[in-house]
Amino acid sequence: MKETTLTVEGMTCNHCKAAVEGALNELNGVESATVSLQEHRVDVIHQDSVSLETMVEAVEEQGYDVKA
C-alpha cells in the first residue's frame, strides 16, 4: 500500500468532504480516503495500481481543483 496526499481547493463543508471521500473510495484499489477540511487535503491509502491521474480525475469530477 502507498499513501498519497492531494491538496484540494474548494472544499468547505461536510458535503464536500463526503463527495471527495466517496469518489476516491469508489476507485478500485483505494483502501481509504480521509479529507481534512482545515488543511485542504486528502490522504489516500491505495494500491500501487491506482495512479495519481486517476485520483485527480475522480476529485475533479466532483467539481474541486487539485493542486500539485
- Average residue pLDDT: 97
Taken as a percent bin, the fraction of beta residues is: 35-45%
Name of the level-1 CATH class: Alpha Beta
* Rg from alpha-carbon coordinates: 11 Å
CATH architecture: 2-Layer Sandwich
Query: Given the structure, what is the number of helices?
Result: 2
Spatial strand sequence of the major β-sheet = 2-3-1-4
DSSP summary, beta strand count: 4
Structural class determined from secondary elements: alpha+beta
Shape: globular
Distance N to C terminus: 21 Å
Order of secondary-structure elements: EHEEHE
Structural notes for this entry:
This is Copper chaperone CopZ. Keywords: Chaperone, Copper, Cytoplasm, Metal-binding. Residues 2-67 form the HMA domain. It is found in: Cytoplasm. The protein is an alpha+beta fold. It has one domain: Alpha-Beta Plaits (2-Layer Sandwich), CATH 3.30.70. It has helices at 14-25, 52-60, and strands at residues 2-9, 30-36, 41-46, 65-67. It has a 4-stranded antiparallel β-sheet with strand order 2-3-1-4. It is globular.
